[in-house]
Amino acid sequence: MSEAKRLAGEKAIEYVDDGMIVGVGTGSTVAFFIDALARIKDRIRGAVSSSEQSTQRLRMHGIEVLDLNATGPLSLYVDGADECDPHKRLIKGGGAALTREKIIAEASEKFVCIIDPAKRVDVLGKFPLPVEVIPMARSLVARQILAKTGGQPVWRDGVVTDNDNLILDVHNLSIVDPVAVEAAINQIPGVVSVGLFARRPADVVIVGGEPPLVL
Ligand code: 5RP
User: Fold this and answer.
1) CA 165, CA 77: separation in Å to the nearest integer?
2) Residue range 2-121+199-214, CATH number
3) The sheet that has 74-79: what strands, in order across it?
4) Burial label, 35 (beta-carbon count in 10 A; 0-12, 13-18, 19+)
5) Active site residue 101
6) What is the mean pLDDT of residues 37-56?
7) Does the C-beta of 102 come closer than 6 Å to ligand 1?
């Protein structure tokens, strides 16, 4: 599967134009994209990173990491996903970086999602849906998610996000209306963000393979 991830990451380089500041996601597929980006680093102005993990890898390659407040809107965001449906709506947050990922996706004109074939699903929800919560609201949010969605929230024990918050993973969902579920979970006080990218889906999905499939 890592070969498929590498092929997807390498293909995404075709979307990088000279002089760009590139939004960069998080995860093992994105790591391949960052390594490929390093080969053309003299052609770009820098990157906006969605996590400490990606920041470290970008800096290791000598790619400048910039603050989104200073760059303004971005032309391109490249990130992975845990699940992707036929409408390019995603579940993300397996790496607990969903909030910053969502911010950069929103700030970007084009969101290119890079996945291996196993991430493609007809209906989202088999992968437990990550929700970032303020620590004091953990139990409140879990009760409300259960009541509103019927899903089973499980605290991702031992994980603290880059924003010092916690993650609930919601199991046993079949998300037939991802836009509605995203909105409903977002409204619970204490939710920082939910790992459903439905209101703002990907624009392009690259499925790694020989050759890569571009959707
Ligand atoms: C991190 C994410 C990742 O994009 C997602 O978990 C996919 O990771 P990988 O490329 O390692 O399979 O959303 O929060």
Assistant:
1) 24
2) 3.40.50.1360
3) 46-49, 21-24, 74-79, 108-115, 204-207, 213-214
4) middle
5) yes
6) 98
7) no
Domain limits of the chain? 2-121+199-214, 129-195
CA 6 to centroid of ligand 1, rounded, Å = 13
Residue with CA nearest ligand 1 atom 1 = 95
Catalytic residue among 10, 83, 101, 132: 101
Q: What mean pLDDT is reported for the chain?
A: 98
94 is in an annotated binding site: yes
Q: For domain 129-195, give the CATH number.
A: 3.30.70.260
For residue 97 and ligand 1, the question of a CB distance below 6 A is answered with: yes
Task: Evaluate: CB of 9 within 6 angstroms of ligand 1.
Answer: no
Q: What is the pLDDT of residue 132?
A: 98
| pLDDT tier, 91 (very low <50, low <70, confident <90, very high otherwise) | very high
pLDDT in tens, 50-62: 999 999 999 999 9
Residue pair 76/22 in contact by the 8 Å Cβ criterion: yes
For ligand 1, the distance from its centroid to the CA atom of residue 25, given in whole angstroms, is: 8
Q: Is the ipTM of this complex over 0.95?
A: yes
